[in-house]
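Tutorial handout. Part one gives the primary structure; part two gives the three-dimensional structure as tokens.
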Amino acid sequence: KNWEIGLKVKSDEIGFLTFKVNDLYADLRLKDRQLNIPVFNLKPYDGLLFLRGNFDLSADNIPYYLDVDISGLELNKFVQDTQLNKKDISGFLSLKALINGNANDINAIKGKGWFKILNGNLWEVSFLKGLADILFMPDLKTIVFKEAFSNFEIADRKISTDDTLLTSDELTLLIRGFLDFSGNIDFTVITSFERNFVNKTVGEKIKSFVLDSFGRFMGEIHITGSLKEPKYTANPIRIDKILKEKFKGFFGNILR
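Part two.
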């Protein structure tokens, strides 16, 4: 016989590990060893999370796919329930991702997605924290990013990006590179400073940066090592990078 089991769950408040969420509503259906999740909704940290997916329980490796959609999650409240609770991180996170893999092998995970953070105080994120020090510009840590946006891909035990963009009136960062599952990082950060901000806070490293056609100082910082011990190298940006169509279009449209 073919059996089908359905389970609907509703809860005003629920705890999972160290996390607290509200208004859980889930619809789970098991048929022919296929666990379908047509509805899994909750409200984490003043935001909304919608999840859909499937787990194939007939296979030993339990292949799965998940469609994850998060909007308006308040980062400051979220980090209070993590090991980052002593760090000053804030902003409002939205995220969309399609993920697949095997439930018994974290290394098999693959996926693509994007995230956006509004009004973000992100300088306590480990690999960003050292930028102010390497440039001798302590005032960097006072900047709030109006928006951070990134497309990302998960594959081969890495989370990689070609276009993570953090924007503020004083500073724009374009980040390319990867973070692997062991915490190793390799990022190239293209910086673009508003000229008046640089004049007020100028450090030795930034004197070698290039002044672009919009009157902003551009430079490049290479970040390697790990999340726990990032290493920074500040370089003047190469002219050929400025002239590349991708960066020319990016800075021409964004930084006017």
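Part three, for discussion. Helices lie at 75-79, 126-129, 131-134, 195-201, 239-243, 245-254. The radius of gyration is 21 Å.
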